[in-house]
Amino acid sequence: MRILSLFDGISCGRLALERAGLPVEQYDAFEIDHYAITVSKKNFPDIVHHGNVFDGDFQKFQGYDLLLGGSPCTYWSVAKQNRETTTDGMGFQLFMEYVRALKESQCRYFLYENNNSIHQNIKQEISKRLGVEPIMINSALVSAQNRKRCYWTNIPHVTQPEDQGVLLKDVIEDAIPWQDKSYCMTARYSGAVISNTLERKQRTMLAVPVYGAAQRGRCLDTGQTKQYMELRDDEKSNCLTTVQKDSLICKPVRIGAYGKGEQGQRIYSVVGKSITLSANGGGQGAKTGLYKMDLPDGDYIIRKLTPVEAERLQTLPDNYTAGISNTQRYKCIGNGWTVDVIAHILKGLI
């Protein structure tokens, strides 16, 4: 098959073609993100990259078999204030480049993806331009991630994937989840804190045993936030859940911090005293302090998903995005496709 891919990202479409068992003779990609292109070239050095879609001469690709693409949903997302709900914004201009590519290349088949949460006005216009209605598929059927996406395609025989029963606990490396499925991976993940998960239902956080982390000598990097431990050698000989230990309960036991670790960002164990309440102060723990509530198995600190765990949520191979910074890895993964969903759709071509 000869493939034309717009907004190619990290070439999840190419990986999905392989996973679906479809041979690729030629794969031409349009993408402008330097880091995404780096990942793409590392995994598929034979891909031909062409740059910005606005500069594309898509007539050169006449006779190609399949047009792939999912224009950026940034402008349409419910997470964006004053999001675009009509066809006169940049979001729709980007989508129209996909329409132009389809007309100029005359690809036999097409697959277009975007967020299920975009405004109904936008959905209707996309359906009108492409001539098909969207199929909503939740990635949760094939992965440990809740990710509802709409797919517009003329590929035949597209059905809902069978539920594989994959849970968050099946993809994490050394932590304990308190939910069955991860929240949807997003491009912004470097500033993740526990409030994102508990209050805003995003940027999934995990629990890691404090004592185990100390024994391994780990500093759990959460991007812009670092959670670390300050335990004396004699304290390390006993888990913090040993509440009878006088040295552990006579004072606040600090086990970590968000951000720069200023007063309102310090995290304390509930096995110990609280800090002094105050009438003023800033940070997440302003006035009362931050406390890690015990889970049944003992004391825990909270961390976000590792890049490998995030890759697994998108059904990517481990370390598929390795070679760029973690911040950029999270961004590329969040902007990517759930590969097994795309592979399921593409199998209709067989």
How does this model look, in words?
This protein folds into two domains: 2-165 and 337-349, Rossmann fold (3-Layer(aba) Sandwich), CATH 3.40.50.150; 190-304, Alpha-Beta Complex (DNA Methylase, Chain A, domain 2). It is built from eleven helices and 14 strands. Helix 1 (12-19) packs across helix 11. It is α/β, with parallel strands linked by helices and 350 residues long. Strand 9 (220-222) and strand 10 form a beta hairpin. Helix content is 25%, strand content 17%. Strands 3-2-1-4-5-7-6 form a seven-stranded mixed beta sheet, with helices on one face. Strands 11-12-13 form a three-stranded mixed beta sheet, with no helix packed on it. A two-stranded antiparallel sheet has the order 8-14.
SSE inventory with pairings:
Layout: E1 2-6, H1 12-19, E2 26-30, H2 34-43, E3 48-49, E4 66-69, H3 90-105, E5 109-115, H4 120-130, E6 135-138, E7 148-153, H5 194-198, E8 205-209, H6 210-215, E9 220-222, E10 225-227, H7 233-236, H8 246-249, E11 254-257, E12 266-269, E13 290-292, E14 300-304, H9 307-313, H10 326-335, H11 339-346
Parallel strand pairs: 1-2, 1-4, 2-3, 4-5, 12-13
Antiparallel strand pairs: 5-7, 6-7, 8-14, 9-10, 11-12
Question: Quick gist of this model?
Answer:
The chain has 350 residues and is of the alpha/beta class. The chain is built from eleven helices and 14 strands. A seven-stranded mixed β-sheet has the order 3-2-1-4-5-7-6, with helices on one face. Strands 11-12-13 form a three-stranded mixed β-sheet, with no helix packed on it.
